[in-house]
Design goal:
Elements (H helix, E strand, L loop, with lengths): L2 E2 L2 E2 L3 H9 L2 H4 L2 E7 L1 H4 L9 E7 L5 H19 L3 E7 H5 L4 H9 L1 E5 L2 H15 L2 E6 L2 E6 L22
Parallel strand pairs: 4-5
Antiparallel strand pairs: 1-2, 3-4, 3-6, 7-8
Helix pairs in contact: 6-7
Amino acid sequence: MNRVNNYPIPTIESLKEDISALKELLEKTEAVGVTGSLAHGCFKKWTSDIDFFVIQRVSVSDKERDEMRSALQKLAWERYGRGADVLFYTLRGLKAIPSWYTVIMASDGVLLHDKGRVKKIFHRIVSLAQKKGLVHKFYDGQPVWEMGRPMKPGEIISLKLEDDENDQR
């Protein structure tokens, strides 16, 4: 196993196992995944942190969110000797597609745990981005989405998913 300072290098497979052990915290969680360098294949064993995202069906209390954040940061530090960032979304917030980062997360993030809804929503986000004319590319190993055509001055490209009956299943 590849190690740095006596800690194992995190992999998608090892994180899936680690996340599955957080059973109590996963009860109110639709999905947990990683984005950033680990998901994009450019993880630097000496300097990269772990970028987690957590999708919850509905908003939870600050205490519950802090417990999940703490559990993931503790996992990253104690098991892998590195820091972690944790982003939180609700299903509704995810479908609002609040930033370009949400599209990157949907296209290039890796789900470590999913109850079945988030993968479908991610596919819908990517499909909508493509339908609106956005093109998925890589620059210096980093994923980006850009317009596939020249834009008019002041033109705004808005992405938002409508509710779908399959999102509730």
